[in-house]
Amino acid sequence: MAPDSRRVRGPEESQSPLLYVPCSEAVAEVPRAVFARAGLLSQASGSAYLEMGGTKVLCAVWGPRGAPGRCRLQCELRWAPFSRRGPRSSPRQAGLLLQESLEAAVRLERYPRAELAVWALVLEERGCGLPLAVSAASLALADAGIEMYDLAVGGGLSRGPGGQLQPDPLDTEEESGATVYLSLLPALNQVSGLVCSGEWEGDSAVEAIKLCMEGCQRLYPVLQQSLVKATKRKIPEPQSG
Amino acid sequence: MTAMETGMVSNRYSVSRPFTSGRESCSGMASVQLSEAEKVYILHGIQDDLRVDGRGCEDYRCIEVETDVVSNTTGSARVKIGHTDVLVGVKAEMGIPKLGSPGEGYVEFFVDCSANATPEFEGRGGEELGTEIANVLYKIFDNKSSLNLKSLCIQPREHCWVLYIDVLLLECGGNLFDTISIAVKAALFNARIPKVRVLEDEEGAKDFELSDDPYDCMRLNVTNVPCIVTLSRIGHRHVVDATLQEEACSLASVLVSVTSKGVLTCMRKLGRGSLDPESIFEMIECRHKILRQFLGAIPAFWVQGKGATRGETSTQVPNFTHSSLFKDKYMHLHTQPYSAVCMSLSRESTAI
Amino acid sequence: MAPAKCCVPGERLCSLEDCAPGHGTYCKHGYIFASLSGYVVKKNDNGMMPVLSIVRDTDSHLLPVIGVTVTCKVMSINARFAKVQIMYIGSTALKTTFRGTIRKEDIRATEKDKVEVYKSFRPGDIVVAKVISLGDAQSNYLLTTAENELGVVVAHSEAGASMVPISWCEMQCPKTHIKEQRKVARVRAEYLQT
Amino acid sequence: MAGLELLSDQGYRVDGRKAGELRKIQARMGVFAQADGSAYIEQGNTKALAVVYGPHEIRGSRSKTLHDRAVVNCQYSMATFSTGERKRRPHGDRKSTEMTLHLKQTFEAAILTQLYPRSQIDIYVQILQADGGNYCTCVNAATLAIIDAGIPMRDYVCACSAGFIEDTPLADLSYVEEAAGGPQLALALLPKSDQIALLEMNSRLHEDHLERVMDAATKACKDVYAVLDQAVKEHLQEVSAMLGDRGMA
């Protein structure tokens, strides 16, 4: 075939220029500022918006709606195309983790033959997207009036290059290797989700989990307050004596 | 206070919630249906450290390992624990290094849950579980020390070895993750990657020369390749190496991947229940004990340098015995009696 | 009166010794916990232990349960069953409808073998029925009309007029005076609007 | 194909066999406990595993139900590492779908399906290592697995391939011989009644030679039968010995 002289042929392979952009070495302020609000979407049964540092998560819940079989928690967690640079993590896997973390918190047996749909969107990812999505999802479920044992609160942690443990890490810090993500039911003191990756020697993993749990306990009252506010807004006070 | 029962049920012996998610515990795609009475029976036994097949809570079933089973592969292994049967083939193919790590080769995992294991896996039925297992495998290898990827590099930025680690699930009898991780380790141990010589002529064109001699090959250092230990929470205790029946009784389990030095490389909670933090710490601690069982059972996989050439594996390792279940050169290994193995091995583990 | 306390799931409300758990709560370790976000209401039934429950006025997460009376619309019929859409549970309108099935043998209590679906229901009828089973993975909610109070309450004739019941098995069109067969419900007096 | 001599002047093939000689067959029945029937077979370097489930209730949509006989459901898959070049997917590609269909046709002809109306029999075969004659090895493995499951058949189904190179019909082709591109024929035979369950031929072969090739394949199938029959009898003896022990105790 004659070479096409009219067009400039690009190289056979190409890569995203983002790969070569040096990461800015930002250090997260600890603790990162949190903003939480429940019940902001009118179309969904329940909804919540959660912001921590630069990470922003929106979550909506629909249901319960009729579905054959036993009650299911249909979870979907997505990252918006503009949420971060570089590749995004697989939504399928993240949805499963979200589902696993929430299942222990929701009283599914109260909803036979029904389906609850949880849909979370990470608008901006600056680290801790998944744990924040768990917290947002449990806020949204509670806002929808779904019966739950407790709010599932997510917390993240990463180990810096010097070995120091950093709660609520930024995305740049998450890339450094060792991370822990945890979801806690604080009132019952139960762990409903746990993922550790990277190398953890000796008892460092235990220490990290404990630190992560402390972080969750700190976030818990914030979520409770925002939920109380949303409930007061949404539901009129009963007039009974 | 004792650890709270997993899954928060007020009734002490009710181990299942009547209406819960359609997805059973993660590895229990091929799950069995158990009646309430059977569950209570298993649960009561476990409270007394006695399981249905006579094991204690922290005992493995007999682990059978056979290496070098498929001659078309770079390395292969078949591992059988109880009724769980897994075949792993490693194929080394030439590829281009990933951009992020130009000086390293890389590893690709694929898990085929074949219909052999259970008819539910027919067609695309096993894909979901397969991807999930593959994701866990990626995660446990996602660190610098598990495998020396630099040794897989042939020419930085241009050529490297890609290790395709393909897992084939032949039979599914509980404890998939552990079995698969042992099989992956055994297959990597067995892998013989041909040595490559790069010849460069005057114009800078490169040519590769693969060694024909099967003994002139590169072996991988698998000392730090982690093994997965899945601990299932049943009642107030945890068990290792759960059978399908036991998995059906467990609402939550923790998957810990651990190297021979006791370093955790990945940890995950599986299943729909929740766990007491104390019990998680207990499980993390328990890995040392399990590790000693493993070390005793399969020292060759942990200590590189033994049985380095083809055919010697079986003779060098005293714990392997021959069995003729599948083939004549089958290696069979029994980790019992555990206490004896642990005793004799504490010496060996200190040597590592 | 002090404003009612607002609570969120997981909040510990009180000891089991002080109150009995009501709607929207669960018990653990001898305490009552909230499982809904809403207002805590303590109801004192004379002399009995007060019942603690959580109230959400907007609540409508009702799901059909066995034994509950539902109002539904017939969507399609065939020789063996009628398919319906559940629209009300008791007197609460549902946000999303649920699908149900009324099998031929569940239409009336007596002479079940003589029942024919098309002589009992027609698509578009509004039927009061009772849930008898949640059904399994493949099937819908199973409903029954085998009681005097259950059956068709609103039906339209071919002429389009709302028909008037004339017996337990017939309805008549006020325009054309044509009689059509239905499994008619005897609507309880308290529900009738006059 | 130049260079490679598939049949030497002395009449020996690449791997040292005579023209009508089979590769070494090793078979084992009942390898898995959970399946209703299972078998593992090695024909030279080709290794296959077959598992049978059933007869059981129809799975999935009921519309598949046949009212007068059982549905035979097959799946042929190849391990991704079984071939020289790594395969991307174990099943679902065009070739394995075709193989699946062939297996189904073969066993519908052999199993007494009318004994189990409204039910289903699953046959899953897996090639662990491929070195020619994949279809035939699978049929042989599946036959053993069905016998192990105790499902009645008209007869054993024995399959063997045959080729035609340098005017000589060759039995049981290996991968090298298959890759040479000559005509090849796969025959699945019910050996006692000499009935053909499946016959497939690729590539071009003069009509005059067909009979000779067929004869070679038929003879090879009967040889396979002898080996399989031996394996079944040995297995039966093992099992009955075990039962006997239990009976005494």
UniProtKB/TrEMBL annotation, chain A:
Nucleus found in the keyword field: yes
GO cellular component, one term: nuclear exosome (RNase complex)
Alphabetical GO biological process terms: nuclear mRNA surveillance; poly(A)-dependent snoRNA 3'-end processing; rRNA catabolic process; rRNA processing; U4 snRNA 3'-end processing
InterPro entries named among the record's database cross-references: ExoRNase_PH_dom1, ExoRNase_PH_dom2_sf, PNPase/RNase_PH_dom_sf, Ribosomal_Su5_D2-typ_SF, RNase_PH
Keyword Calcium: no
Gene3D superfamilies recorded: GHMP Kinase, N-terminal domain (3.30.230.70)
Protein's UniProt name: Exosome component 6
Species assigned in the record: Leptobrachium leishanense
Gene from which this protein is expressed: EXOSC6
TrEMBL record, chain B:
Cellular component annotations (GO), alphabetically ordered: cytoplasmic exosome (RNase complex); nuclear exosome (RNase complex); nucleolus
A Pfam family: RNase_PH_C
Entry protein name: Exosome component 7
CDD domains (alphabetical): RNase_PH_RRP42
InterPro entries, per the entry: ExoRNase_PH_dom1, ExoRNase_PH_dom2, ExoRNase_PH_dom2_sf, Exosome_comp_Rrp42_subfam, PNPase/RNase_PH_dom_sf, Ribosomal_Su5_D2-typ_SF
Keywords annotated in UniProt: Acetylation, Cytoplasm, Exosome, Nucleus, RNA-binding, rRNA processing
Localization per record: Cytoplasm; Nucleus, Nucleolus
GO BP term, pick one: nuclear polyadenylation-dependent rRNA catabolic process
GO molecular function, one term: mRNA 3'-UTR AU-rich region binding
Keyword flag RNA-binding: yes
Family: Belongs to the RNase PH family.
Listed SUPFAM superfamilies: Ribonuclease PH domain 2-like, Ribosomal protein S5 domain 2-like
Highest taxon listed in the record's lineage: Eukaryota
Gene of this entry: EXOSC7
Assembly description: Component of the RNA exosome core complex (Exo-9), composed of EXOSC1, EXOSC2, EXOSC3, EXOSC4, EXOSC5, EXOSC6, EXOSC7, EXOSC8 and EXOSC9; within the complex interacts with EXOSC2 and EXOSC4. The catalytically inactive RNA exosome core complex (Exo-9) associates with the catalytic subunit EXOSC10/RRP6. Exo-9 may associate with DIS3 to form the nucleolar exosome complex, or DIS3L to form the cytoplasmic exosome complex. Exo-9 is formed by a hexameric base ring consisting of the heterodimers EXOSC4-EXOSC9, EXOSC5-EXOSC8 and EXOSC6-EXOSC7, and a cap ring consisting of EXOSC1, EXOSC2 and EXOSC3.
Domain Exoribonuclease phosphorolytic, residue spans: 60-194, 224-289
Phylogenetic classification of the source organism: Eukaryota, Metazoa, Chordata, Craniata, Vertebrata
Principal location class: cytoplasm
From TrEMBL, chain C:
GO molecular function annotation: RNA binding
Location relative to the cell: Cytoplasm; Nucleus, Nucleolus
Residues of the Exosome complex component CSL4 C-terminal domain: 89-134
A GO biological-process term: rRNA processing
Main location: cytoplasm
Assembly description: Component of the RNA exosome core complex (Exo-9), composed of EXOSC1, EXOSC2, EXOSC3, EXOSC4, EXOSC5, EXOSC6, EXOSC7, EXOSC8 and EXOSC9; within the complex interacts with EXOSC6. The catalytically inactive RNA exosome core complex (Exo-9) associates with the catalytic subunit EXOSC10/RRP6. Exo-9 may associate with DIS3 to form the nucleolar exosome complex, or DIS3L to form the cytoplasmic exosome complex. Exo-9 is formed by a hexameric base ring consisting of the heterodimers EXOSC4-EXOSC9, EXOSC5-EXOSC8 and EXOSC6-EXOSC7, and a cap ring consisting of EXOSC1, EXOSC2 and EXOSC3.
GO CC list: cytoplasm; nuclear exosome (RNase complex); nucleolus
Domain Exosome complex component N-terminal: from-to ranges: 7-42
This protein's UniProt keywords: Cytoplasm, Exosome, Nucleus, Phosphoprotein, RNA-binding, rRNA processing
Gene3D superfamilies: 2.40.50.100, Nucleic acid-binding proteins
Family: Belongs to the CSL4 family.
Protein name per Swiss-Prot or TrEMBL: Exosome complex component CSL4
From TrEMBL, chain D:
Gene Ontology BP annotations: nuclear mRNA surveillance; poly(A)-dependent snoRNA 3'-end processing; rRNA catabolic process; rRNA processing; U4 snRNA 3'-end processing
One Gene Ontology CC term in the entry: nucleolus
Cited InterPro entries: ExoRNase_PH_dom1, ExoRNase_PH_dom2, ExoRNase_PH_dom2_sf, PNPase/RNase_PH_dom_sf, Ribosomal_Su5_D2-typ_SF, RNase_PH
Phylogenetic lineage: Eukaryota, Metazoa, Chordata, Craniata, Vertebrata
Native species: Leptobrachium leishanense (Leishan spiny toad)
Keywords from the UniProt entry: Acetylation, Cytoplasm, Exosome, Nucleus, RNA-binding, rRNA processing
CDD domains per record: RNase_PH_RRP41 (cd11370)
Protein's recorded name: Exosome complex component RRP41
Cross-referenced Gene3D superfamilies: GHMP Kinase, N-terminal domain (3.30.230.70)
Cell location: Cytoplasm; Nucleus, Nucleolus; Nucleus, Nucleoplasm
